[in-house]
Design a protein that fits this description.
Helix content: 25-40%
Structural class: alpha+beta
Shape: globular
Distance between the termini: 66 Å
Radius of gyration: 23 Å
Low-confidence stretches: 19-23
Order of helices and strands: HHHHEHEEEEEEEEHEEEEHHHHHHHHEE
Bound molecules: heme C
Strand content: 15-25%
Number of helices: 14
Largest sheet: 6 strands, antiparallel
């Protein structure tokens, strides 16, 4: 009889986990892994009817965040890196031909090769290459290359999170190994459709980048009905739901240890939703979401980010409930209230915990 307990306990645990998960975030984005290809519309079709949303969309970081390593911009950088690689690491060489890009590292008397097949990051901040390898179940693990390119310095340096010293594992001289579930998570946040074929990720059919249907769900029925069938998925979202959907990739407060949620902590500055929901602006205005300040259909570079219009939407002296800056400033709001913070050596993020500046703290500059 004792043997019957574990499955029951497991089932109860599983149900509890599912229920808790739902309570935390009731209407998440649809998962990108559907094998049912017929649900997904051709992504070019949206442009036929939605000019405003598609006109500049391909320039967004979202659209460009994952590319094949052989795409022109990735290839150009890898060719640049090939010239300087041996200065950075004597044991490293890069071979590029029509078919493949192979990095090699000499370890003792043997050579370790890794074929790079994907390039993560639009280049707004950085680009990181990865190679995928079959594991013993035929799924694919991922090696994240040790070297990344950084926009801020226009140079190559160690990938964020990787050790400055080479490790000793088989591929450690080339990068860090992520097992299949972790590798899947990388692709899930950086792509739109991640199909499964007999339980395995089908990389041939992957739709890279965070594009329309990653945020709006599969839309074949919508396209076939010429827009008759609508989801209204975002219009129906509550304030917190809306922020948490962006937070599925940009992270949410519940993912962090409570003691880490302190003003100016660079480890949370990278996760914009975490800071934003601590702000008095969020707590006191039921309409504030990420799209109050960001148009997800246009690149950040096209949105005037001097930071006045974002703020005076609400901090308008004409409205009686909150005033413009009590320190008397009429400009450069972000400099003091949403400063840039150096999160990694070569990457800055904007602190979304909007608050009174504390000039005694080092994080305000
Ligand atoms: C044949 C025309 C047509 C095509 C193609 C089309 N739509 Fe639409 N869509 C409409 C119409 C009409 C509406 C309702 C009016 C509006 O909001 O513009 C609409 C509304 C929407 C809305 C807001 C309402 C809702 O359902 O959430 C979204 C989001 C949307 N479309 C996404 C897409 C995406 C993504 C694609 C491409 C996969 C697409 N549409 C392709 C016609 C089209
Ligand atoms: C499926 C994952 C995912 C979702 C959902 C998502 N993002 Fe992103 N977002 C990313 C990734 C990945 C990047 C990095 C793009 C790059 O490589 O530069 C990014 C970048 C951005 C940027 C910088 C854009 C630029 O052009 O440089 C903004 C702003 C942003 N996201 C806002 C949002 C908002 C607002 C939402 C919700 C409406 C949202 N994101 C939902 C994954 C996501
Ligand atoms: C939970 C979702 C999520 C996962 C998992 C994820 N990323 Fe990202 N990634 C993002 C978001 C959001 C951004 C944009 C802002 C940021 O850097 O946090 C981003 C940005 C990046 C960038 C651009 C540099 C930058 O900081 O803007 C690179 C390169 C990148 N990710 C690579 C990876 C790789 C490789 C993996 C797996 C090892 C991975 N990501 C896993 C969500 C994710
Ligand atoms: C990062 C997530 C994200 C991506 C990617 C995205 N959208 Fe949206 N979209 C939103 C959100 C959030 C709203 C709701 C905006 C609001 O409430 O102001 C929205 C609203 C819309 C609407 C309703 C009209 C409007 O502008 O408010 C349409 C139509 C639409 N999107 C189409 C598209 C199409 C077409 C694409 C691809 C070219 C696309 N979206 C890509 C998040 C996204
Ligand atoms: C009050 C306005 C405001 C709100 C609300 C807001 N942002 Fe931002 N965000 C900004 C500004 C301003 C920048 C800096 C723009 C620039 O550098 O051009 C920025 C930059 C970003 C970036 C680029 C990386 C960085 O940190 O500099 C991402 C990603 C981003 N926001 C995501 C989000 C997400 C996700 C939400 C919702 C949780 C959100 N933002 C809500 C104003 C806002
Ligand atoms: C959607 C509306 C909205 C937007 C957009 C907004 N705020 Fe607020 N903000 C508020 C509300 C509401 C409060 C609370 C004020 C009150 O209690 O009277 C607040 C409070 C503040 C405070 C006081 C913080 C404290 O610790 O007491 C500062 C500083 C502030 N906002 C700056 C900004 C700046 C700078 C921007 C632009 C980057 C901005 N806000 C954007 C609504 C908003
Ligand atoms: C040079 C730094 C600086 C700039 C630039 C700046 N602020 Fe402030 N702001 C402050 C300081 C300091 C305080 C706190 C003053 C005090 O103690 O009353 C403050 C207070 C505020 C408050 C709180 C008001 C209250 O009493 O609740 C708001 C809202 C605010 N600022 C909005 C803005 C907006 C909007 C802009 C851009 C138009 C802006 N600030 C530009 C430094 C700045």
């Amino acid at each position: 009889m004792g043997q019957r307990w574990p499955p029951v306990v497991l089932a109860v645990l599983l149900i509890t986990i599912i229920l808790l998960g739902r309570a935390k975030h009731p209407h998440p984005l649809p998962e990108p892994q559907l094998g049912r290809a017929r649900l997904w519309a051709d992504s070019d079709s949206c442009a036929d009817c939605h000019f405003e949303q598609t006109e500049f969309f391909l320039q967004t970081g979202h659209a460009r965040t994952l590319q094949s390593a052989s795409d022109p911009e990735s290839l150009r950088l890898l060719k640049e890196f090939r010239q300087v690689a041996s200065e950075k690491d004597e044991a490293l060489t890069i071979d590029i031909d029509q078919q493949e890009i192979v990095v090699s590292s000499t370890v003792g008397s043997s050579i370790r090769d890794l074929e790079l097949d994907w390039c993560f990051g639009s280049g707004t901040h950085a680009r990181t290459w990865v190679g995928t390898l079959p594991d013993s179940w035929g799924e694919r693990d991922l090696i994240e290359f040790r070297w990344s390119w950084y926009h801020e310095t226009d140079d190559f340096d160690i990938t964020p999170g990787q050790s400055l010293q080479k490790g000793t594992g088989y591929f450690a001289a080339l990068g860090t190994l992520f097992d299949t579930p972790k590798a899947r998570r990388c692709f899930s946040c950086h792509s739109t459709v991640l199909p499964q074929n007999e339980g395995r990720t089908d990389f041939q059919e992957l739709h890279s980048g965070v594009t329309c249907q990653r945020c709006h769900g599969p839309r074949q029925a919508h396209v076939e009905s010429e827009g008759e069938i609508q989801e209204g998925f975002w219009a129906a979202a509550s304030q917190l739901e809306s922020i948490q959907r962006c937070g599925e990739c940009h992270r949410i407060a519940e993912d962090q240890k409570p003691e880490e949620i302190t003003p100016g902590n660079p480890d949370i500055v990278r996760f914009q939703p975490v800071g934003l929901v601590q702000s008095p602006c969020f707590k006191n205005s039921p309409q504030l979401t990420c799209v109050t300040c960001h148009n997800p259909h246009q690149p950040l570079s096209m949105q005037n980010s001097s930071g006045i219009w974002q703020c005076v939407q609400c901090h308008d002296p004409q409205q009686d409930h909150h005033v413009l800056c009590s320190a008397g400033h009429r400009d450069n709001c972000l400099e003091c209230h949403m400063p840039k913070v150096q999160v990694f050596e070569n990457i800055q993020f904007t602190d979304h915990w909007i608050r009174m500046p504390d000039f005694s703290s080092e994080t305000v500059n």
